[in-house]
Amino acid sequence: MVAIKVVRSIKKYREAARIEVDVLQLLGKNDRNGSRCVQIRNWFDYRNHICIVFEMLGPSLYDFLRKNNYRAFPVDLVRELGRQLLECVAFMHDMRLIHTDLKPENILFVSSEYIKVPEYKFTSWPPKDGTGYKRLPKSSAIKVIDFGSTAYEHQEHNYIVSTRHYRAPEVILGLGWSYPCDIWSVGCILVELCSGEALFQTHENLEHLAMMERVLGPMPQHMLKRADRHAEKYVRRGRLDWPEGATSRESIKAVLKLHRLQNIVMQHVDHSAGDLIDLLQGLLKFDPSSRLTAPKALRHPFFTRDHYRRF
């Protein structure tokens, strides 16, 4: 059994597919065990559609969350997933590659097997709607997929990258980007895994930046001052033009209902919350030059401390 990605016969998609094949072959050469990234088996051109043949994997983290009614993963599982994800990012960065589109949809469990465990958060048992069980994967092994947007370090990096919810502030402000934009995405993903929902649920730039400040505190002045001509409209007198520049009352409400990062984590995590908060604060630093690198993040106590339970 294999999985085949069929790319539509449109010039820009074909170009992305060619990049993906090149990147996959390069990664495969250097990751002989195929332990981090999905393995390419072959590729061919069929009636102008590029078809890439992959090993068969399980569901994405997003699909798993969705089928679990967006219930949070246990923190010990988040630790295992975070470690593997950062190992993959460290491996790619070491090869001078930036993924640029890390998100739960692009991280797949290797196996689709799961077990059902009862959830004891209900007053009556069994609960009437049958939701009293949650799924846990039998194995925490994951692989990263979708290298069609991967960038080489030496290329120009001033265009927009990343899927909206996982997009770093330097990308929105047009300051140019590099390896740290992947690290920001990892931070957003880890929050989502331990809370069950995307951290920044928005489709608009100013609202997105305001949400970041709401969760993480004020953005550094030097970054706001350097915003490019497209983004300078979000800044007034050296600070974010918020809430004055908001597009609607709903937008302001959406920002105000967000909690600080510490509170989001502590609502969902029973043990290791302090270590996880500290790690996330390092991954979600506004200034990309102060953000943790993947190897540094892997040495963080959240991963190295001897925790009571292992997933």
Automatic annotation (TrEMBL):
InterPro entries: CLK_kinases, Kinase-like_dom_sf, Prot_kinase_dom, Ser/Thr_kinase_AS. Transmembrane segments: none annotated. GO terms for cellular component: nucleus. Gene3D superfamilies: Phosphorylase Kinase, domain 1, Transferase(Phosphotransferase) domain 1. It comes from the Eukaryota. It catalyses: L-threonyl-[protein] + ATP = O-phospho-L-threonyl-[protein] + ADP + H(+); L-seryl-[protein] + ATP = O-phospho-L-seryl-[protein] + ADP + H(+); L-tyrosyl-[protein] + ATP = O-phospho-L-tyrosyl-[protein] + ADP + H(+). Keywords: ATP-binding, Kinase, Nucleotide-binding, Serine/threonine-protein kinase, Transferase. Its EC number is 2.7.12.1. Pfam families: Pkinase. The keyword Methyltransferase does not apply. Belongs to the protein kinase superfamily. CMGC Ser/Thr protein kinase family. Lammer subfamily. It is an enzyme of class 2 (transferase). One of its GO terms (molecular function) is ATP binding. This is dual-specificity kinase. It comes from Pyrus ussuriensis x Pyrus communis. Residues 1-303 form the Protein kinase domain.
